[in-house]
Amino acid sequence: MNLEGMRVMGIDPGLTRCGLSVVQAGRGRAILPVSVGVVRTPSDKDLTERLLRLSVAAKEWMEDYSPDVVAIERVFERGQVSTVMQTAHVVGVLVLAAAERDIPVYMYTPSEVKKAISGNGRADKKQMTTMITRILGLTEPPKPADAADALALAVCHCWRAPAIVRMDHTGLGLGAKTSGVRGQGKKR
Amino acid sequence: MNLEGMRVMGIDPGLTRCGLSVVQAGRGRAILPVSVGVVRTPSDKDLTERLLRLSVAAKEWMEDYSPDVVAIERVFERGQVSTVMQTAHVVGVLVLAAAERDIPVYMYTPSEVKKAISGNGRADKKQMTTMITRILGLTEPPKPADAADALALAVCHCWRAPAIVRMDHTGLGLGAKTSGVRGQGKKR
Known about the structure:
Structural class of chain A: alpha/beta
CATH class of chain A: Alpha Beta
Oligomer: homodimer
CATH superfamily of chain A: Ribonuclease H-like superfamily/Ribonuclease H
Largest sheet of chain A: 7 strands, mixed
Order of helices and strands of chain A: EEEHEHEHHHEE
Helix content of chain A: 40-55%
Distance between the termini of chain A: 23 Å
Largest interface: A-B, 31 and 31 residues
Shape of chain A: globular
CATH topology of chain A: Nucleotidyltransferase, domain 5
C-alpha cells in the first residue's frame, strides 16, 4: 500500500491555543512538512465567539491545504473539568469542519502519538520536539508546544495509516476515505 | 423589563437523541409552546456523520423559528466517559450553529432547570414532565424525555432572563443580545 503524496492535517485541539499542521507522506517513512501554526482565541471572549473563530480558522486551513485526512487528539477526562469540556466542544467544531468537506477524521490518544513518534508512550515534551524536528528535517524546533503536538499527530497518522489500510483489506471496513472517526486501529 | 414575544430555543444535547424545542414568552410568566422534537442519529454511523446531521438539523430549526436566544444544558463529567465526551462534542457543534447566526447562548445545569421549573433542584423526570405539561398548557405530556427536557430548558431561560437582563443594567455586561455563553447569572 503506497500512501505517498497523502496529505494529513494534524490538530492539537484547544480553546485558548489550537495547534494546526499539515504534512505530506513521502517515500517509505519519509514525511514532508507543509505548514504549521497555532490559532489563539482571547480568553475574555465568549465561548460562542471563540468556537466561531476556531471553526473559521480550521475551515480556512482545510480549503488552503486540501488535506486527505484529519488526525486529531482524543480528549480525555484529565485535568480541570471546565478545560476538558471546552476542549471537547472544540473537537466537535473541528470534526464538523472536516465532516462538511467529507474529510475522514482519525483520533489518537497522547500516548499513541508518543509511542508512534518516539517508541515510548511516556516520552516528555522535549523528547517529542526533538524527534519531530528530526523526522521532518526542520532547521529549528517547532514552537509553541501546541505546534509540535499538531505535527506529531499528523506524523503519527502517516505512520499508522498503512496498517489501518491493510486492516481494511481484511474486510474490517476501515476504508481510509470514508467519513469516520477512528483510533487504535478499531472502527468506532 | 418586558420580554414578551422573546423566542427561546431549548436544547437537550445528545448524540443519539437530541431534544429541540422553541417557546415564546407571553405576558408575565406565561409561555407559549411553538415546537418540540427529537433528532436521532444512528449509532452505527461515524461521529463525523452524526455531528453533521445534528448540525444540519439545528441550523434548520434556527432558520425556521428564528430564536432570539438558545438555552442549552451544560455538560458535566457524570456517567460514562465516552458518552460525556460525545455530548460535549455535540454541544460544540450546536453552540457554533448559534454563533454563526449571532444568536446568544445560555447554559444551565440540570439542577438549575429543575429548580426553575419545579422549585426543587432534585425533581424527578415524572415531576418535571407534569410541570412542563401544565406550564405550557399541553394536552398531553411531551415524549420522549429529551423533548420534555428541551422544553424545560427553554422555559427555564424565559423565567431567568428578566433577572439576567436586570443584572445587565447594573453594568455587569450581561447583554441579552450578544453572543455569550452564560449560566447561573454570571458571565463566563
